[in-house]
Fold each of these.
Amino acid sequence: MEAGVSKSVLYKCWLNYDRGAKLSKENGEILSRIVTEKESEIISSAVKELEMAAQNIIGRKPEVLKETNLPHVFLGIDKDEKSDLIDNGFSIKKDKGVVNILGKDENGILYGVFEFLRQIYTGKNIDNINIVDNPKNMLRMINHWDNMSGDIERGYAGQSIFYKDNCVIDKMDRIEDYARLAASIFINGIVINNVNVHQYETKLISCEYLPKVKKIADVFRKYGIKLYLSINFAAPMELGGLNTADPLDAEVKAWWKKTAENIYRSIPDFGGFLVKADSEFRPGPFTYGRDHADGANMLGEALEPFGGIVIWRCFVYNCLLDWRDRTKDRARAAYDNFKPLDGKFKDNVILQVKNGPMDFQIREPISPLFGAMPNTNEIAEFEITQEYTGQQKHLCYLVPLWKETLDFDTLVEGKGSTVSEIVNGNLFKRKYGGVAAVSNIGNDESWTGHPLAQANFYGYGRMIWDTTLSAEEIAKEWVELTFGVFEGEDKIVSMLMQSRDIYEEYTCPLGIGWMVNPNHHYGPSVDGYEYAAWGTYHYADFRSLGVDRTVKTGTGYTAEYAKPIADMYENVETCPEELLLFFHNMEYKYVLKSGKTIIQHIYDTHFEGVERVYDLKEKWLSLKGKIDDEIFDAVLDRLEIQIKDSKEWRDVVNSYFYRKTGIQDEHKRKIY
Ligand code: GCV
């Protein structure tokens, strides 16, 4: 069975060629022949893709030829030395009955084919097609938080597609379908195991498990994707029997070198290691009085001879922080831990920085670490899986949130120092640049649980390839590919575009965050978050709420930004209101620019948020009969859940603040 064929519409996602597309007779003729100048695994994936689409569009499989004078699609490497293409880039140009799809490399050819089909299936006129497209980010990564038990940490779409019962699964067809989906949005690196590396996953780098890992790498390779592994910093002890994991110990160094050799013998194009160290009880260099540069560089040395990289996460903080001490601040942690180490990391070490200083809340400022380390490779980390954003039961299209991060101007080198320009490596002329994100994929039929959450996976890839695309353009593209070009598509686009604001309205006001039930993080509990066990992290009392992060009277966090940004956040008047309570402790009676007090804003947004979820449902109902029943029903089920849950959020949050303050809702609505 060919990858992706004969499965449901939910499964086929945005690559459902059965949807049909129209081509002129002339273009149909072109699609009936494919000429390739060389054979390779990646090129044969590209050919397969054209074949699948052609069968639907022109009703037959194209001939695959070495050469012809008849109309055809040509797939090849761009040999023009003056061409504008960079690695992974491609061009698609029509010239006298031939569509030339040229890549700078084989990935480029494959991406060119996916783009060509995207153009066709979104109804673009390809008569004079002329596209040159290059990646804005060279590392375009997905991080899986999959455990070998089959469970996925923060996974909301079933079990792992890689593991079951502490083994790598034998059948590779679903993994191949996944690689194809990922390649279609130009992903070129995938970490296949959780950054919290437990007993079994520690062994993935061992000779016993490598043959299984190799099988996955072999599948990924066909789609131009490199495989990476998360490693356990204490592996030399847990796996190697050493009595230390000290990064400066000679035996430890030798052990990692040997391990790297074994890995590359099995997987010559292995990407490298992803590391979570000294955070949330994971082992790391701190145990030995070493710093993160010592730890990362030791691994960097081991991978260097093979061209591998170390991606070291900056999500390092003390999760047992005593929040009663108001001078301590978790938001400072990444910056405080890493900024002093700027310039100390090897060239093949990259720091991976979460978009916000805390942890993937629906609203956070941008991490001040972006741009704070000009002599260090930095990439951004996003969370596609909806841990704090509705767990794929609620609709929450996250591309607008991510775009906000990438477009944010840090001003560290004057105007134009956007996060995008920092993480793509341009601003500081860094060797490596890119973006990573935590997958929302599981073995659910729809891959993502909520069918509309596919837009987040799709949108992530499209956005990091081309950071100039707007969230709305990406949404439209996804809708057209998933549902076909149809009247009514704008309704789905508008549902997606509003969804983040709606979610924010009925959950966490003005940047305060964290009001979730402990551990699983689903549903409202204003004081519930597990790592705030010492008290409340939002400091709400009868008079005020919010965290004072100013230099003048608070934790001093604002000073971690470039001066103009620091000043903006420091001052209540200039601080963007959606982040007001992130930066300031404010009285409930403080009047916002809308003319409403903070307490009234909390009440109003929570009522309004629920109303807007009802509107989402109305919009969706109006699409009945216009889209596949399977998707229609699955989304409707989730919208019902969202209505019920948003009411719970509204009631829990409003009543909490009503009881704290005793202040009545101006509109005298019932607060439970
Ligand atoms: C993989 C948060 C999540 C954890 C996750 C961690 C991380 O704390 O709740 O599940 O662990 O972030 O990013 O390492």
Note: The CA atoms of residues 43 and 110 lie 7 Å apart.
Amino acid sequence: MVSAGALVDRYGRVATDLRVSLTDRCNLRCSYCMPPEGLPWLPSAEILTDDEVIRLVRIAVEQLGITEVRFTGGEPLLRPGLAKIVAAAAQLSPRPTLSVTTNGIGLERLAEPLRAAGLDRVNVSLDTLQPSRFERLAHRRRLPDVLAGLAAAASAGLNPVKLNAVLLRGINDDEAPQLLQFALTHGYELRFIEQMPLDAQHSWDRASMVTAEEILAALQAVFTLTPDPAVRGAAPAETWLVEGHRTPSGAPAKVGVIGSVTRPFCGACDRTRLTADGQVRNCLFAREESDLRGPMRSGATDEELADRWRAAMASKAAGHGIDDPSFLQPARPMSAIGG
Ligand code: SAM
Ligand code: SF4
């Protein structure tokens, strides 16, 4: 049932999943995301304070029907107030599901406190298991920190720990089976994401992108995969059961592929996004944003902010149109929008 006041667009899609970017800063430089020298970061006066984030998340949950909140960035673990924000979101009613998408650096220290604050799950990005490739891809020697963060997340009970992997041609495109074997061995749930045109350098090239089809073929050369009978709903990942493997809880092990470009799922999209500087985006690829920070700092009421949010979502486009010749990459990169 659609809740009263929900975020509905003109195609009837209802947004119930909120992605909140807590910072545009990062301690890695993944080449599909940002250049090695980094980016001009947002001025701190423009970043929402912890209390402003908490207020907007409360409005989203209490007035707009949001049931799932994911904190992302940039690197959300760099935000000093993350545990405080999670704890406040966990007090909301109805209580939303709370998760973080992170590169894993710092999770070794933060997994327990975040779990105690009320975090339900983490998605950790892991594109390679080879230190030299990690350095080539992310421009930092931090693979051991990521692996330690994964182990800490699992022992803190942030299960199932999910892994996100992006494959880049000529760098790690041969590593799909090894990444899956690693995930199966440790009881993590792996999803591959097709590379999208969201990097600050605008270096994405459709022709050299590793496609969902290629990823599946590489996995099927080593594993027997059968389509997952579970209903997909609004989940972006298509999932397969990996024959002969089980999760630590005894369920059949799965692997997912998010074919954002070649198998778009815009028709079932249930997402709304809030950037670190308080802009609502109705799509990762939207070219327009709606400001909530300005009105909020000028004294707007909760109801006025909720109305602005609804209006921003009502105009959501039918699809991202990456394959359309008129497609234009959004002005802001993934790290500023919140992935
Ligand atoms: N820093 C955190 C991390 O890496 O998980 C959170 C933010 S990051 C932007 C969120 C996710 O987006 C990561 O899994 C990352 O691999 C993915 N990502 C970033 N740029 C991408 C791109 N151009 N295409 C596909 N996925 C991308
Ligand atoms: Fe940082 Fe995540 Fe972007 Fe990598 S993908 S540079 S970890 S924000």
Note: The longest helix spans residues 50-64.
